[in-house]
Amino acid sequence: MKLSRALAVTxxxxxxxxxxxxxxxxxxxxxGCSSGLQINLVPPPSSYRLEARSIPAGSPTPLVVxxxxxxxxxxxxLDDYFPTRVQLRLLVAGRVRDTTVTPTYIVSRPxxxxxxxxxxxxxxxxxxx
Length: 129
Hints:
This protein is mainly β and 129 residues long. Helix content is 9%, strand content 42%. The strands form two sheets. A four-stranded mixed β-sheet has the order 4-1-8-7, with no helix packed on it. A four-stranded antiparallel β-sheet has the order 3-2-5-6, with no helix packed on it. Strand 5 (85-92) and strand 6 (95-101) form a beta hairpin.
């Protein structure tokens, strides 16, 4: 009995994978997340059309997001979209803003280091014309 207890303590001190009674079991929460590019529009317009083209061009057709309605048009989210550089064209009330951005993507695991999902997101801010 004393010998097995001594072996357990020795294994613990020597860095055994079990980690001194700490199991690798982790309780994971159920928080979800989305991966892609988020574009915050400042100040939030009441309606807009946003066109996104990756550079170098991945497709001749831009990805288009449109929004109209009070209070809900401050953010555009391009789901599963990960360009290194992207040309954005924002159309608001007949005005146009063209800009090129280089998003910085961050990997997150909202439910813990060893839990799914793993998400990749970048956020850019675009002034409204």
